[in-house]
């Protein structure tokens, strides 16, 4: 019989000394808040730097518009791709606590160096007249090296933090306890809302400091915020609950693939119940007919049968359980959905690159106050908040009343988000066509075109509404459809959709520049002389094709998921 003391202990978690974690003195909301505070400050710091980076490259480093855009999107892509590396490192070696601590300090190093580089004259080219771009000297190799070192240190830090904060925050709640499980759901449902609030502050207050006070103060403020978050995070060391490293799920995937390849020529047993399984009825996963070739990893041949009898153990690179095979199948099954949600982040990349450059050429004044070009992303964030608020307060109650379901499915949210993103680009084409007509009728020496920047608001708002639905739909899908032991990998895989979206944006920019150069360059150094509207039109067409592929993938996923065998 369990005593009150043993009931207070959590079986799968330990405290900072390695002893079984006590429910009353570890974990809970306070611990989770200390952990997720790092993510909040990282988001604030990274967004404050990232959404205004293209104007720094164009205005201070004197790089062409398309080059500046590609640098920003490549940096963003690598940042989120590194989250996959951070997740593997945490699961295999460091654990989530040390991964967050180490990588948060790397993030501080990068933002600090970036702040310093803005005030050291030798780290940037001399100022010039923006109306005479031919007289502007581009940043040299040494200056760009310092810049790259700074922003990619931030990228490394971002990758390590993002891969672990959600998981480490989840560790602070015992999912076997109904009360703590409900607390966790409530906490995380609202955390994304507060992160968006932090992002809104970043793209307004912090960007205003960069543009109107000084870049060094803007980047320096980001550094201070990250340092404070680390202090708060480390101060909670004694309160946290820790989970042991279970090994990388990448290794498990490789084991199944290797074992299936080695046994590719073996025939299946007449009774499929003879396939290797070590899990009990309540924890095993039923075998599915999909990806049947992987089932060969669970075939027990004569040599393995003898080893099992003699030693009672197996070689995981030659024999895997049905449940392990099914976990790999589950990860494989989500790949088409993963691939068809990437395209949205190509559109997202335009909001922090070319859309900011568009805003920089337009009138942005409200009375005597001029809105920084990058701060138009505030409309993007505001749309996310409004969309989430409407969904939480109106859509969910309506759906419960009419269909007895807790809101839209993850597939529906992602599909609607992708559809709205197509509308976003159509609107962007129309607005850019209008802006270019004004630019063509205005002298090249005029820095601010006689057209209001508020024409850009609809595309920012639509993109934000699309992200609010798509992002939450993705998060739900990747966490619920992945195996229990691969949640960190699944979260990292979700974040790579952002990475590949940014990479594809860079690739499209390079391809369009190469194809159109020498005729009528769509993306010249000065966007007023290009055809950005046609570039946006190409993205709209690609997004429509992608939506068709997504709908087919979603239908295929639901149909194949039901093909299980007992």
List keywords for this structure.
transmembrane, two-stranded antiparallel ribbon, globular, disordered C terminus, MFS_trans_sf, 6 strands, PTR2_symporter_CS, transmembrane helix, two-stranded parallel sheet, Growth Hormone, Chain: A, 3% strand, mainly alpha, 566 residues
Helical/strand content category:
mainly alpha
Give the number of DSSP strands. 6
CATH topology of the largest domain: Growth Hormone, Chain: A
Total helices: the number is: 18
- Rg calculated over all Cα atoms: 26 Å
What does this structure look like?
With 566 residues, the protein is mainly alpha-helical. The protein folds into three domains: 18-244, MFS general substrate transporter like domains (Growth Hormone, Chain: A), CATH 1.20.1250.20; 249-331, no CATH class; 335-566, Growth Hormone, Chain: A (Up-down Bundle). Helices cover 66% and strands 3% of the residues. A two-stranded antiparallel sheet has the order 1-2. A two-stranded parallel sheet has the order 3-6. A two-stranded antiparallel sheet has the order 4-5. A hairpin with a 2-residue loop joins strand 4 and strand 5 (369-370). The longest helix has 53 residues, at 65-117. The two termini are 35 Å apart. One of its GO terms (cellular component) is membrane. GO terms for molecular function: transmembrane transporter activity. It is a multi-pass membrane protein. Keywords: Membrane, Transmembrane, Transmembrane helix.
């Amino acid at each position: 019989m369990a005593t009150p003391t043993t009931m207070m202990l959590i079986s799968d978690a330990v405290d900072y000394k390695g002893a079984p974690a006590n429910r009353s003195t570890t974990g809970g909301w306070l611990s989770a808040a200390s952990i997720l505070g790092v993510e909040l400050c990282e988001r604030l710091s990274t967004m404050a730097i990232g959404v205004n980076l293209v104007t720094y490259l164009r205005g201070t480093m004197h790089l062409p518009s398309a080059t500046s855009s590609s640098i920003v999107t490549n940096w963003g892509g690598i940042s989120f791709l590194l989250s996959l590396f951070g997740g593997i490192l945490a699961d295999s070696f460091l654990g989530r606590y040390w991964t967050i601590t180490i990588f948060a300090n790397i993030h501080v190093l990068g933002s600090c160096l970036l702040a310093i580089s803005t005030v050291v004259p030798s780290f940037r080219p001399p100022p010039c007249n923006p109306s005479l771009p031919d007289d502007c000297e581009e940043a040299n190799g040494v200056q760009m090296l310092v810049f790259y070192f700074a922003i990619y240190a931030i990228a490394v830090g971002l990758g390590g933090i993002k891969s672990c904060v959600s998981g480490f925050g989840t560790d602070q709640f015992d999912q076997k306890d109904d009360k703590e499980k409900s607390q966790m759901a409530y906490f995380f449902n609202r955390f994304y809302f507060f992160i968006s609030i932090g992002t809104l502050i970043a793209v307004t207050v912090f960007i205003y400091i960069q543009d109107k006070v000084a870049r060094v103060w803007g980047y320096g403020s980001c550094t201070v915020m990250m340092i404070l978050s680390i202090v708060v995070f480390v101060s909670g060391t004694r309160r946290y609950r820790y989970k042991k490293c279970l090994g990388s799920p990448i290794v498990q995937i490789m084991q199944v693939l290797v074992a299936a390849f080695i046994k590719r020529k073996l025939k299946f047993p007449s009774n499929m119940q003879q396939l290797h399984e070590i899990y009990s009825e309540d924890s095993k996963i039923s075998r599915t007919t999909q990806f049947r070739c992987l089932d060969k990893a669970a075939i027990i041949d004569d040599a393995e049968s003898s080893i099992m009898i003699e030693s009672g153990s197996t070689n995981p690179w030659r024999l895997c359980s049905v449940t392990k095979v099914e976990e790999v199948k589950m990860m494989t099954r989500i790949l088409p959905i993963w691939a068809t949600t990437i395209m949205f982040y190509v559109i997202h990349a335009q909001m922090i690159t070319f859309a900011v450059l568009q805003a920089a050429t337009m009138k942005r004044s409200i009375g005597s106050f001029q809105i920084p070009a990058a701060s138009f992303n505030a409309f993007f964030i505001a749309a996310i908040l409004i969309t989430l608020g409407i969904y939480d307060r109106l859509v969910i109650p309506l759906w419960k009343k009419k269909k007895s379901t807790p809101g839209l499915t993850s597939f529906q949210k992602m599909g609607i988000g992708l559809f709205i993103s197509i509308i976003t680009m159509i609107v962007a084409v129309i607005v850019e066509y209008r802006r270019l007509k004004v630019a063509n009728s205005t002298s090249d020496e005029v820095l601010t075109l006689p057209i209001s920047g508020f024409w850009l608001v609809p595309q920012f708002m639509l993109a934000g509404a699309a992200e609010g639905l798509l992002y939450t739909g993705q998060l739900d899908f990747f966490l619920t459809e992945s195996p229990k032991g691969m949640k960190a990998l699944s979260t990292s895989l979700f974040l790579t959709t952002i990475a590949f979206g940014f990479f594809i944006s860079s690739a499209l920019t390079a391809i369009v520049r190469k194809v159109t150069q020498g005729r009528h360059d769509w993306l010249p150094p000065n966007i007023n002389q290009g055809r950005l509207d046609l570039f946006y039109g190409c993205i709209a067409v690609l997004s429509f094709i992608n939506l068709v592929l997504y709908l087919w993938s979603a239908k295929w996923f639901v149909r194949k998921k039901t093909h299980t065998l007992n």
